[in-house]
Amino acid sequence: MFLLILIYHQMNNPTAWVYLSLHSTYGILWVLKSKIFPDKGWERKVSIWYGLISWFALVLYWFPGWLVMLHNTQVPAWYLGLCISLYIFGIFFHFTTDMQKHVMMEHHPNELITDRMMSLSRNSNYFGEFLIYLSFALLPMTWIAFLPLALFIIFYWSFKIINKEKSLAQKPGFQEYKQKIKLFIPFIF
Q1: How many CB atoms lie within 10 A of CB 59?
Q2: Considering the domain boundaries, does residue 185 fall inside one?
Q3: Whole-number pLDDT of residue 60
Q4: Is residue 29 part of a domain?
């Protein structure tokens, strides 16, 4: 992203710098998370083709940043504040849920996790990621910036959530939990 700031002469564009800051800190936090409380789904060996496809898919998240640079998008200060707040809440939901899941699975591997973060939403980690990527998509102020997020929801998250629901359905107490706790957005959906 910094290279895009230089290429598109965006050194004085606060929106470009906010995008760079949000996206960069998310990458750094993701690496730290992987070292401190790794997700087994990301810690397995994959083929070179799967790795390349994954890399290409993740590069799509740079698309909103590129749009900011390309169009010299400069949003109002209140809008920057909104995007930063969405990002912070997203980081909170994503990483605290993943930490809770990691600790609980380490100490109680076969138990259904229904408390703390999991009492807000059955997929509060995905909800957190949604807020993070929503903050990225909002910054360019164009509908096309939502395309990567929509593609991930349709072609990746929905399948992961469906498979997770099927897996959790095997655990005692899941039906009661499912009726009590919303699927994705806390208290709403």
Answers
A1: 10
A2: no
A3: 92
A4: yes
What letters, b where the CB count within 10 A reaches 16 and e where it falls short, cover 84-113? eebbeebbebbbebbbbbbebeeeeeeebb
**% the chain with pLDDT above 90:** 91
DSSP state of 47: -
Domain count, the chain: 1
Let me know if residue 57 belongs to a domain: yes
Whether 164 contacts 113, CB under 8 Å: no
Does residue 189 fall inside a structural domain?
Answer: no
Q: Is the pLDDT of residue 41 over 80?
A: no
- The one-letter amino acid code at 137 reads A
Instruction: Report which of 119, 94, 80, 120 is spatially closest to residue 34, judged by C-alpha positions.
Output: 94
Domain that holds residue 108: 2-180
As a whole number of angstroms, the distance between CA 84 and CA 88 comes to 6
- The pLDDT of residue 73 is 98
Joined tokens for residue 80: 């920057």
- On the 0-12 / 13-18 / 19+ scale of CB atoms within 10 A, 124 is buried
